[in-house]
Amino acid sequence: MIKVGMADLNVCRAPEALTTLGLGSCIGACLYDPTTKIAGMVHYMLPDSTRITSNQNIAKFGDTGIREVLKKMEFMGARKSCIVAKIAGGATMFAVTSGAGLSSLNVGNNNIESARKNLAALGIRIIAEDVGLNYGRTIEFFAEDGRLTIKAIGKEIKTI
Q1: Confidence band (pLDDT; 50, 70, 90) for 99?
Q2: How much is the average pLDDT of 88-113?
């Protein structure tokens, strides 16, 4: 099991697997090519790198992190036309009071929308997701079959 930290990414091929801990408002975007059994994961914290002027970590953002995972997978031999995605995370971990301009504080929802928008722009279809709500997740992504296992405290283990 290859660990992917917060604001981190990695790729692997079967029989390896990727895992990340503590997805709260962050997103775990998992890409998979079933023909080559190559998998990639990014654990990103924020939706959009263009809002930050001194971005030193491309894995910290949805737009740059997802593109980098795709690039690394293609370098390993994955075919973009075959790649599909699964996403998890994007929880609302803290109560946000409604009011003018406060929607930008809902990082979880913004991260979910970033995953959907950036994957669509790359022509990658999301085939499963476990997003939103108000609890953290730990995920394991298996390159052998593209299975994504989601663990959360007090919840049944879910596989998508």
Answers
A1: low
A2: 77
Enumerate the active-site residues. Answer: 26
Region 117-138 average pLDDT:
97
As a residue count, the chain comes to 160
Cβ–Cβ < 8 Å for 83, 47:
no
Among 153, 160, 157, which Cα is nearest to 22's? 153
Q: Where does 1-157 have alpha helices with state H? A: 62-76, 107-121
What token pair was written down for 138? 């730990």
Phi first, then psi, for residue 120 (nearest 5°) are -60, -40
pTM: 0.92
Give the 3-state secondary structure percentages of the chain, helix then strand then coil, rounded to 5. Answer: 25, 35, 40
The separation between CA 49 and the C-alpha centre of its own chain, rounded to angstroms, equals 15
Rg (CA), the chain: 15
Q: Which residues lie across from 17 on neighbouring strands? A: 142
pLDDT tens-place string over residues 40-52: 999 999 999 988 7
> Is the peptide bond preceding residue 47 cis, with omega within 30 degrees of 0?
no
Mean pLDDT across the chain, nearest whole number? 93
- List, in order, residues 6 or more apart from 64 with CB less than 8 Å away: 49, 55, 58
